[in-house]
Design brief:
Order of helices and strands: EEHEHEHEHEHEEEHHHHHHHEEH
Strand content: 15-25%
Bound molecules: nicotinamide-adenine-dinucleotide, zinc ion
Largest sheet: 7 strands, mixed
Number of strands: 11
Mean pLDDT: 92
Low-confidence stretches: 211-222, 227-239
Distance between the termini: 42 Å
Strand order of the largest sheet: 1-2-9-6-5-3-4
Number of helices: 13
Radius of gyration: 21 Å
CATH superfamily of the largest domain: Dehydroquinate synthase-like - alpha domain
Structural class: alpha/beta
Amino acid sequence: MITVTVQTRPRPYQVVVGHGVLDEAAERIRAACGAARLVIVSDQNVAGHYLDGLSASLHEAGMTVSHVVLPPGEDQKTLARAEELYGVLYERKMTRADAVVALGGGVIGDLAGFVAATYLRGLLLVQAPTSLLAQVDAAVGGKVGVDFRAGKNHVGAFYQPRLVLADVGTLATLTAAERRNGAAEVVKYGLLSGEPTLARLEAALAPGTGADLPPESAGSASAPPKSAPPRPAPSGPVPRLEPDPVALCDEEIIAECVRYKAAVVVADEREESGERHLLNLGHTIGHAIEAAGGFSLYSHGESVGLGLHAALWLSQRLTGLDAAQAARGERLVQAAGAPSRLEGVDLQAVAGLVSRDKKAVADHVPFVLLEDLGRPVRGVHVSTADIEEVIAWLAAR
Ligand SMILES: NC(=O)c1ccc[n+]([C@@H]2O[C@H](COP(=O)([O-])OP(=O)(O)OC[C@H]3O[C@@H](n4cnc5c(N)ncnc54)[C@H](O)[C@@H]3O)[C@@H](O)[C@H]2O)c1
Ligand SMILES: [Zn+2]
């Protein structure tokens, strides 16, 4: 088991990563925050596997435990659901000395976290993430919230948990598609942090395809010079290999991602200095693709995978990323199961959505790009022409 301490002020907290972490939940919760009354919030998919075991072990340790189980899915992240949960906490007479335990993926973590942050101005919060995406991303860093009208996470707060229990064993019951969803974020951390994470990811995902390969076997990452037109689209269906990145469900890999995110979060807890923007690598174009596909054609992970391809391409053109390193990044993104080509969406709409990105300032969208693998730069000004060109390249590969 690996413990990463997130050095938030005034109160740091621990993220415990490993197999069987949930079995030790009672003692760890007691040590972290002293709560003895808990409400576990979960969804039906997760509860079926893990709720009884967790409830029983907390109960045996003398804690008062109850639960709420919601249907799965993003459409649960609403103010209406939050209000229902407030009702449950009210009826169960929960106080600020009591804890909400969010047992599930990012949806449960965000929703239950938001409820914990706001009910009585803050109950104790324990995150128990059970999806790869939630373990490496959503459960760490203190962003909680719900969707509002068309805006994802439009209503929310920064509210750090007292403890994060990331039981790697729970990832065994995820679908391959959900593992791929989280895998794109894992690869993002690899590209941001460089060695030793990159080599570890290569060994796990695509053994024998790492930095040691000669450049001619480097795949298709090279960005054309400014004057070259995008290559024509190959005809026929795009081969989708859809690997199952099960090898990423590894204690050390997840802990490395958590360490990276924790360092960024500590440097910029409330997204004020800009440091936290680093975590947006691949997301500027990724978010636009996700939205252009109506949040159904491409999952978040697939969209981020395509966004990472685009970021590697733009990094060669604008921030001097070496072609062989870009190709290395490309191979990892591909091995994590990202689609290799953008299709089925209106390319103009994607470009338009990029300029309307949440993080846009004045007339430009600041991009996170790479000078080298492990050397991100933020706030890079990317012209509309380059945005259109890289989107055309994504659709024509
Ligand atoms: N707060 C943040 O910083 C942050 C960061 C990234 C994403 N998010 C949010 O996280 C959400 C996405 O997270 P997600 O991908 O975990 O989605 P999710 O919570 O919907 O989980 C994905 C699916 O996997 C199922 N599942 C989860 N764990 C399982 C397990 N161990 N076994 C079997 N099934 C399991 C869920 O029931 C669901 O069907 C989005 O709402 C997003 O906005 C938040
Ligand atoms: Zn993401």
